[in-house]
Structure formats: C-alpha cells, structure tokens
Design a protein that fits this description.
The protein is of the alpha/beta class. The protein is built from ten helices and twelve strands. Helix 8 packs across helix 10. The radius of gyration is 18 Å and the shape is globular.
Length: 301
C-alpha cells in the first residue's frame, strides 16, 4: 500500500473520519452531555489537543489542583520526530503546559526505552519539550525504579515490575503514537504500557496480545491521547526512513483506552476486532470497541 492508498483507506473511506460528520467548534452535545471520544483532524498537535481537551470538559476535569501527574509518551526509539517512531514533542509539551496551568503540583515524564535512553530522550525532541514546558523528565533505565504489582485475573502475566512514577502519580495520562508494529500489528495506547514495566521481554515470550490485554486491567489511564499527526504505516515499531510515514494530522482523545485504541485502528484502516488484544479487552469488559455506541465529537481544524 503506497502513501496515497493509506491515506485513502485510513481517512476518506473510514466511517470514523467521515467529513460530513465533523462538528467544528462544538464542545458538547446538544443535551450538554460530554463526549466519550474526540477525533480531530487537520491541525498541529498542540492546537488539536487544546480543542480536544476542551471537548472533554477541559484539563481541569482530569487534573485536580495540587496533583502529581504522569505523562507517558512513547520515547522508545533513537530517531527524530519526523520519523514518527515516538510521540510528537509538540503534543507532549502542550499537555504538560495545560496540566501546570490547571494547578498540577508537578508533571513528570518517562519511558523505558528500547534504544539508549539518553539518545532517545534527546533526539526524539521530547526531553527539550518537557523542560521547556516546565515538566520533569525522569529515567526509566534502572530496575531499582520498578516495584512488583499483581495483575488481577492474569494468566499470561500475573505480576509485573512497574515504574514507581506510575504507582506514585495521582493522574496518569497515556500519550501513545499510532504506528505499525511487527508483532502486535498496531502499537497504540495499551501497547504503550510496555514502557512502564521493566521486563518487556516477558510479554513477547508469553503471548504478547494476551499480556497487553491483561495488563490493561491493572490500572487504566485517566486519559489517553493518541498522536496520529505522523503515522508510521510500515516497518514499525522503529521504522527505516521517512518513506514509512504518512502525515495524517489527526489526534484522538478518550477516557476509555479500549475505545481510543479502537478509534485509532479505524483511522489506520484496520477493523478493531482484527487486533487480537483489542478483541480480548472487549471480551474482558475493560472498555468498548463498539464506536457506534459512543458519543463522538469529530472536529476539523
């Protein structure tokens, strides 16, 4: 599939992004009920977040004054932002700014990276974005930062060593980048949880899809923001060149991580039920991948 075909499949042909159903500038449904999920298209990452979070009631609905916030992007790879292996730094910066403006006591950011962590943090642009926004960027590269937790009803994964920042935060905001993945087919919100555990190898050795699904039962993020500005359509999760990337200029926000991942799969051009970990989580009733049952605000910038 070339880039034009990918754009056509993921956007024009997908009911999720049907242009006729966009509602520019509308934050709430006619009955003042807040939306379950917001899908934005056509803006820059920071501007889309501003519009999207407003449609979910504003950042204050998620971040109480004085709270400790963890923002968890994908920073796993030593590549520059245009390669789309990591979350876009402009989005990370804006989320931190909004949290601090809402009165958060602190906003910390980390990832347990796959490539060298100092190079990942620097070359992704995320380290600079965090510092410029007034946040704190923390290493995930030492086992001493991780503590064992039990996974409820787990079979493929019964325990996991989880970074102390996840355990100590009041608010957990998950900020994955949407991209292809060789083993999981897509990496989005639930797959991004692998960056908060120490032994990611266990997941790969013990039914990756089931581990992704079962871990999601341990702690759900308060908010999932899917970065789909640049999308790696092939050779994920690291990619090989800019040729792997299509620019979609899109973003998805939801409190239900399963719904967020389902919407992102549709945006990519894949039916949510064809992603095994998504189907498992829906069976486990950890969220919904039935997008037709949700109140969705589609915003064209």
């Amino acid at each position: 599939m070339d880039r034009r075909d990918f754009l056509k499949t993921g956007l024009a042909a997908g009911s999720l992004m049907s242009v006729s159903r966009f509602a520019p500038g509308r934050a709430f449904a006619a009955n003042d009920e807040r939306y379950d999920l917001v899908v934005l298209r056509g803006g820059e990452p920071d501007a889309m977040f501003d519009r999207g979070i407003a449609a979910l009631g504003g950042i204050g609905a998620f971040v109480p004054r004085g709270s400790k916030v963890l923002v968890k992007p994908n920073i796993g790879w030593d590549v520059t932002p245009e390669r789309a292996a990591n979350t876009h730094p402009l989005l990370v910066r804006r989320i931190i700014e909004q949290c601090l403006n809402a009165g958060a006591r602190e906003v910390r950011v980390f990832d347990h990276t796959c490539d060298n962590w100092t190079r990942c943090y620097r070359n992704s642009g995320i380290e600079r974005a965090v510092k410029d926004a007034g946040g704190l960027i923390v290493s995930g590269d030492s086992e001493r930062y991780y503590q064992d937790v039990e996974i409820p009803n787990g079979t493929s994964i019964t325990t996991a060593a989880v970074h102390e920042l996840v355990l100590g935060s009041d608010v957990f905001i998950n900020v994955p980048v949407l991209k292809a993945h060789g083993a999981a087919r897509l990496t989005i919100g639930m797959k991004n949880h692998m960056g908060i555990v120490w032994d990611r190898g266990h997941w790969h050795r013990n039914d990756l899809h089931r581990c992704i699904a079962e871990f999601a039962a341990w702690r759900k993020p308060h908010l999932t923001v899917v970065d789909a500005y640049n999308v790696m359509r092939s050779n994920g999760p690291r990619g090989t060149s800019r040729d792997d990337v299509a620019t979609l200029k899109s973003q998805i926000l939801a409190t239900d991580i399963v719904a967020a991942d389902a919407a992102a799969a549709k945006l990519f051009g894949i039916e949510p039920g064809d992603i095994r970990y998504l189907a498992l989580d829906a069976e486990m009733k950890l969220g919904t991948m039935d997008l037709g049952s949700l109140s969705i605000n589609r915003i064209r910038m």
